[in-house]
Amino acid sequence: MRVVVTGAGVAGATAALALARQGHRVQVLDRDDGPRPAAVADAAAWERRGVAHFGQPHALLARLHAELAAGLPDVLEALRALGVPEVPLPDGLRTVWCRRSTLEWVLRRTLEAEPGVRVRTAAVAGVETAGGAVRGVRLADGAVVPAELVVDASGRRGRLSAPWLRVVADEPAEEVYTSRRYRLLPGAHPGPVNRGVISVAEGDGYAVLVFPHDAGTFSVSVTRLPDDAELGAVRELGSFEAAVRAVPLAAVWTDPDRARPESGVMVMGGLRNTFRTLDDAAPLGLHPLGDAVCTTNPHFGRGCALAVAHALRLAGAVAAAPDDARAWRTGVEAWEHGELRAWFEDARAIDRARAAVWRAVRDGRSPAVEGAPGGGLPTLLVLAAAAADPLVGRAVLRHMHMADPPAALEAVHPRVAALLAAGWAPGRPTPGVPGPTAGFAAPPRSRLVEHLTAVAAAQPA
């Protein structure tokens, strides 16, 4: 079968590799003309204009590791050969400390070497159809590339599937990320890690996240509300470094005796939670993947894991019924409207609850976590209880790494309810439970704002 994949990011590369290994002839069309750097050490500087968050920090979850181990084990082996650290987690889960640029470099190198795959630089203008099915894609120069299967992995702003995509949900994620990348000095060891794959200091109106990566690099992100003008000062280099030094967890990681900065300050905003679906008029053989269907706040790093899972579900549907495009659509949509939609709703609920708490703190009101629909405990409250009870902590870790479906977290609701009845509250330490990063709590937002204001006032005009 002739397959065209538009977009050579994580979703597109995964789909192309999996389909080519079934014996199909695959052309990958990518609009970015920057060639893959010859050396992985140069991958961070790779020109990937079509992937706006390419250089931003990423956490690669245990779900991503499991999907690659099942579907593309040679990609994991290539990462290991490059020295990418594997991170063991409870219950036999595993993940890696790896930059997005390193992962994409390995995927692209594997793609370029794969028999039956051709990677081209080209801009796609539309889908060619006949008799209710795809017949190929039309390029910007008017040429047509024939195909019986068209995979749209062109991202949230891609237009290939747009005529048939219907918006189910679209709302702001209510979070802005301001980040900087650092490199450990020779002989220096990583700082403390309290979430398995990343380290987090939760403030009362913001959060600071440290992302360990490969090759001795790591990133620090300060996250805030988009309309928090006072914390918006962290966009400036001096204020960002002042904020990092004011948060003990980040200060330990970025101590000049441990690490040096390797990038400027990077800001990522305009984030949205979106879920779209193909309508019934969409031609058979057209399959949007990844961000073309679902985007969520990157706070929990689910994007890459869901993109790989989505691509492998399509490949599995094709393998199960190679000549039945209707079966491909039915199989993939069952997963999209089931598990994918569940993870989307989980992210949206957490974002809404977090934004409400942060906004109350900023406005001087008493913060309270909003109740969940149907009267259940809100997920944000359950996540906050992870450090107060080991069984809740285990369930939360499995949830954060997408090892269990979102609904599995309900099993620990009674334990969280008992904690609340005993007087526990989010942000309040539990006697006898120091936690892996005790002593590294983030300062209150009000104190951080005072500190940033004083730093700004001391700067020359």
TrEMBL record:
InterPro entries: FAD-dep_OxRdtase, FAD/NAD-bd_sf, Flavin-dep_Halogenase_NPB, Flavin_halogenase. Pfam families: DAO, Trp_halogenase. One of its GO terms (molecular function) is monooxygenase activity. Signal peptide: none annotated. Residues 2-75 form the FAD dependent oxidoreductase domain. Belongs to the flavin-dependent halogenase family. Bacterial tryptophan halogenase subfamily. PANTHER family: FAD-BINDING PROTEIN (PTHR43747), SLR1998 PROTEIN (PTHR43747:SF1). This is Dehydrogenase (Flavoprotein). It comes from Geodermatophilus siccatus. The lineage of its organism: Bacteria, Bacillati, Actinomycetota, Actinomycetes, Geodermatophilales.
